[in-house]
Amino acid sequence: MRTITCWIAAASLALAATTAAAACHSATDRGTVETRKLAADIWFLYDCGGNMTALIGADGTLLVDAEFGPQTPAILAKLKALGGGVPRFVINTHYHRDHTGGNASMHEAGAIVIGQSNLRARLAQIQRVPPGGSAPMPVPADGLPMLTFEQAMTVHLDGETVRILHLPPGHTDGDSIVIFKHADVVSMGDLFFNGLYPVIDVEAGGTVGGMIRDIDKALPLIGDKTVVVPGHGPVADRAALLRFRDMMATVQDNVRKLINRGKTLEQIQASHPTAAFDAKWDGHGISAQRFVAEVYYSLQPHFVGS
After folding, report:
1. 187-212 burial string, b = 16+ CB within 10 Å, else e?
2. Which of 52, 85, 113, 206 is the 20 to 30 A CA-CA neighbour of 95?
3. Four-way CATH pick for 2-240: 3.20.20.140, 3.40.190.10, 3.60.15.10, 1.10.10.10
4. Is the per-residue pLDDT at 132 higher than 70?
5. CA 21/CA 1 separation, integer angstroms
């Protein structure tokens, strides 16, 4: 089972290191950071990698997630253009480098990085593969969160109450959502992929069942008018989050039934348990076949969260 889960983790890291890095190069050439105003003082930003959410006000700037290090100058320039500055705080929603790769450069610019304790531990272990190399490398100390928490943390800035809430293992074992209470905006990190199949990092404690349960825990905090920022994909709302949750639940049930009938992974993939969803969700980064594999492995008895 360790070999299987390592394969899944390696596939996840390889995807980030290749497709995302290529996208970053293209984005850097364009010098474009997409933005959208979500509420008073709250902005959505995207260059490459994971989505970001920014609070910009008179007391300073707070940024949720930091994409890749090479994108930091463009992100800082865009924050300045929006009336902000170097973030006082950067909050990591989970450890993957398309959300944390900019930690070190943001820290160097003056930001304090915040993350859940499991997230920091994973960044400090074996999360980086150098170009052309095969041995993973830990993140340098300046790329680790300086402030950590176990279950929850609150930042009061610019008249906003920013609540950071850690949820049980779902996408990883260090996932947090970030709630902007007064603005009614929630950043879900990679517990929500809007319009594309998700990554389930089973090597880091993730399971399909855990992701579903985490969404169920978040839903009471999300109203019909709440703006929901996914880790990847367009800005959404409660209805879109529910569609994502229901898609995962249906695929989980389809795969589990086939497992109970003794089918192998290859046989399950050949039966296309995602067929009802492929037209909308497949072909946007994570293939249906890979998603099915991650669901399959996360449903094995080894994964108590399944």
Report:
1. bbbbbbbbbbbbbbbbbbbbbbbbbb
2. 85
3. 3.60.15.10
4. no
5. 29
